[in-house]
Design brief:
Low-confidence stretches: none
Strand content: under 5%
Mean pLDDT: 82
Helix content: over 70%
Number of domains: 2
Length: 96
């Protein structure tokens, strides 16, 4: 008569090995996903760092307008421009 030798032990060993292999595969896949996410984030940071800066907003042009008005006032004070020429140039700057 043939007796089975410890069938529960054998089943536990096979099941335990399969469980460990499955966990290892899941952990490996999770590590790969995390690593890919970090790589994507770094590539995005590098792309943003190498991108040209956005164009200056319209508010940055105001100091340019102020400096032109100051230059016109200096020309008026020096006598290069008459009051009428100064007023016309100022209106032209403020309108455009």
């Amino acid at each position: 008569m043939l007796r089975r030798r410890r069938p529960l032990l054998r089943a536990a060993m096979v099941g335990g090995t399969a469980y460990a292999a499955g966990r290892h595969a899941a952990n490996t896949q999770q590590r790969e996903e995390d690593q890919q996410a970090r790589i994507d984030a770094l590539e995005q940071q590098q792309a943003m760092a190498s991108a040209p800066p956005p164009p200056a907003p319209a508010a940055a042009q105001e100091p340019d307008l102020a400096s032109k008005l100051t230059e016109l006032k200096g020309l008026l004070d020096q006598g290069v421009l008459t009051q009428e020429e100064f007023t016309a140039a100022k209106q032209k700057l403020l309108a455009g």
